[in-house]
Amino acid sequence: MPEMASKRYHSLSLAFVATVALLLLASNRAEARFRGINSFCTTADQRLLCTRMVHGATNWHDAVANAINMSLELATNIKSMLPRIGPLLTDLSPESRDSTIQTCAENFDSAVDNLKEALTYLDAGDKGSLNTYLSSVTISDCIDAFDQFSAPFPDTLSKAARVLGRQVNNILAVSQQI
């Protein structure tokens, strides 16, 4: 019987060693996946972009504030593109062109204002309002206005809108960690 117990013990030892080895391997892969990623960004979809957005923040508040400020800069740049929209809409009637420009102007203003409000709610510690204002940052109304008239949406504006959307998703991932 001692020999059988010894074999059983030996088999269990090998199983234990194999399990530990697999866990260590999995742990190393998980660590490698997050290597270079800020700890506030591990739940973000765009982790590298998020890491640039929080740029070295050491606490949650600063991470969210840094990320919002980066998005606010982009939203302000998008807003400055408004004068370039009119010439792209020359095929539309004056009323349709003016309506599209007006929609885009309001949409761009709203994106900037919502990011500023989000900063206010961050500082006030109102996480619910913070996330509500972040969730409403978009320029989709402008895009929809172009689509309504089958007008081509400017490529640079389209790229900026995609980046802004990714940034806002990252901010929401960071803001929801606490």
Automatic annotation (TrEMBL):
InterPro entries found in the cross-reference section: Invertase/methylesterase_inhib, Pectinesterase_inhib_dom
UniProt keyword annotations, A-Z: Signal
Domain Pectinesterase inhibitor stretches: 32-174
Origin: domain of life: Eukaryota
SUPFAM superfamilies listed in its UniProt record: Plant invertase/pectin methylesterase inhibitor (SSF101148)
Pfam families: PMEI
Signal peptide: 1-32
Molecular function (Gene Ontology), one example: enzyme inhibitor activity
Record's protein name: Pectinesterase inhibitor domain-containing protein
Lineage start: Eukaryota, Viridiplantae, Streptophyta, Embryophyta, Tracheophyta
